[in-house]
Amino acid sequence: MTSLLLSDEVAAALAEHRPVVALESTIISHGLPRPRNHEAALEFESMLRETGVTPATVAVLDGAPRIGLDTEGVRRIADDDLAKASVRDLPILAARGASGATTVAATAHLAAMAGIRVFATGGLGGVHRGASETFDESADLSTLAVTPITVVSAGVKSVLDIAATLERLETYSVPVIGLGTTVFPSFWLRESAYTLDWAVDSPEQVADVMAAHDALGHRQGIVVANPIPADQAWDREEHDRVLATAFAEADAQGIRGKAVTPFLLGRIVELSEGRSLEVNLDLARNNVRVAGRIAAAWAARA
Ligand code: PSU
Ligand code: MN
């Protein structure tokens, strides 16, 4: 039956207790436009390798959950029209021999199964606006409640309900730690209206929390909220104006339900003439860099 397929590079790094960082494929397949998505996937991997960290990009290809992709695998997540796969889709893809790009939830699940403890993404999924009516809440949250992995993200996009997302993470007993800040970031911006109880100053301190988490028998994930560097953040005025316009258009055009987020994200890139996309890439690179340092600090403890 289906088992995980680790690349040689990832298998060797895990066996030798060297640092490994998981990377998701939905951000490549569905979160970034072609051909920038392919460049980004390769860049995230080479950034890690250059600092002695092994990248483990996760996807399901022809039914096999893969932890670490070869050149052709990276090309496929960027160029092929892959299904977006969350945790519940994994057994179906596996049984049918089908392929899918893994969300934060599915990537976390598979990477943790492989023994990987650190994962870099762009923005975490969360509770959608209007969720009290629609129940639309990402399985990223419920998966982190039961999956021991540290996810580095630039917070969540302000198109989501940030307050409800943070409440849900509290309910699930998932620690949320700000890196160098107690203000929860909102993806393109360093700040949101919400504060965190805890901040740490360094990747080593994140590794300390991970060790204490394990010692306490906790099996949840940990969210590291890593704000984009100030000189790379999106201009707040343009951010506010573009989001307001995109929301108004969605409303006027009667866009509802699961169509809302893709509509908003597409319009945000268009209305900002691509500026939001550059910020998106910068924050993702920043998360990859920080995740690499956390993985190195974690490996140094073993
Ligand atoms: N947030 C982003 N970009 C993304 C995603 C989230 O800023 O590409 C993707 C991630 O893969 C995340 C998923 O896990 O969307 C959440 O989707 P859903 O709400 O359908 O669970
Ligand atoms: Mn949803």
Features:
single chain, 302 residues, alpha/beta, Indigoidine synthase fold, eleven-stranded mixed beta sheet, 13 helices, 11 strands, globular, binds pseudouridine-5'-monophosphate, binds manganese (II) ion
Task: Please give the structural blueprint.
Blueprint: E1 5-6, H1 8-15, E2 20-23, H2 26-31, H3 36-50, E3 54-61, E4 64-67, H4 71-79, E5 83-85, H5 90-96, E6 100-102, H6 104-113, E7 118-120, H7 131-134, H8 139-144, E8 150-153, H9 162-171, E9 176-179, E10 198-200, H10 203-215, E11 222-225, H11 236-252, H12 260-271, H13 275-301
Parallel strand pairs: 1-4, 2-3, 2-7, 5-6, 7-8, 8-11, 9-10, 9-11
Antiparallel strand pairs: 3-4, 3-6
Helix pairs in contact: 3-4, 3-13, 10-13, 11-12
This protein binds pseudouridine-5'-monophosphate and manganese (II) ion.
The site of manganese (II) ion has 3 residues, from loops.
Describe this structure in words.
It is a single chain. The chain has 302 residues and is of the alpha/beta class. It has one domain: 3-Layer(aba) Sandwich (Indigoidine synthase fold). Helices cover 48% and strands 14% of the residues. It has helices at 8-15, 26-31, 36-50, 71-79, 90-96, 104-113, 131-134, 139-144, 162-171, 203-215, 236-252, 260-271, 275-301; strands at residues 5-6, 20-23, 54-61, 64-67, 83-85, 100-102, 118-120, 150-153, 176-179, 198-200, 222-225. Strands 1, 2, 3, 4, 5, 6, 7, 8, 9, 10 and 11 form an 11-stranded mixed β-sheet that branches. α10 (203-215) crosses α13 and α11 packs across α12 (260-271). The two termini are 32 Å apart. The relative contact order is 0.14. The mean pLDDT is 97. The site of pseudouridine-5'-monophosphate has 17 residues, from α2, α6 and α8.
